[in-house]
Amino acid sequence: MVSYYFGRKDGLLMALVKRDTAQALEALRELTQSDLPPDVKLRKHLAGVINFNFRYPYMTRLMHVLMRDPKSKNSREISESFTVPVTQAEANILNDGMARGIFRKIDPVLFYFAAVGACDYLFWGGSALHYVFGLNKIDDAMRRRFIDSSGTEGIGRD
Fold it and tell me: How far apart are the C-alpha atoms of 95 and 38, rounded to whole Å?
C-alpha cells in the first residue's frame, strides 16, 4: 500500500512532513501579515516553534533523516517548502524590528540556527534530560517554561 500511494517509504515520510508542517506554516504566514509589532511577532513565532516541536517531537529528527543527503530531492523539497518560508519570515520580522529601532543588528542565519537548534536539542536531548536533569519527559509545564524563557529580551537595542 505504501508503494501504491507514496512510491516508497520516503514518499510516505515526506507526506507526513508536509501534512504536519502545513498548519504551522499557515500560522506563520498569518503572523507575518498581521499588524503586530515585530517584538510581539517574534515572541509569538518562537512560541510557535516550541509548540510545534512539543506537538510533533519526531519532526526535526524525521527531517534530518530525510535530508541526510544535501543534494537529494527530499532535501530540496523540505528546504523549499518549509525552511525557506520560515527563514524568510524570521528575516522579515528581524529586519522590521531593526528598521524600527526595536532590535539590535541580528544575523538572520544565526538567529534561525539558534532558535531551531535550541528546540531541536531540547526535544531531541532525551538523554541529557534524563541523566543530567532527572527529567523523564518534556511535559506541558516545561513547554510553558521554555516559551517564557525564550523571549526576545536578548535581541533588543542596547
Answer: 9
Specify the DSSP class assigned to residue 3. H
- Three cell numbers written together for 21: 508542517
Q: Specify the pTM.
A: 0.86
User: Mean per-residue pLDDT for 95-102?
Assistant: 96
Nearest Cα residue to 22 out of 91, 68, 86: 86
Place of cell 498548519: 23
**Half-sphere exposure at residue 149, Cβ-oriented, CA atoms within 13 angstroms:** 8
Query: Cα(108)–Cα(97) distance, rounded to whole angstroms?
Result: 12
* DSSP collapsed to 3 states, 81-98: HHHHHHHHHHHHHHHHHH
Quick one: which H or E segment has residue 131?
A: none
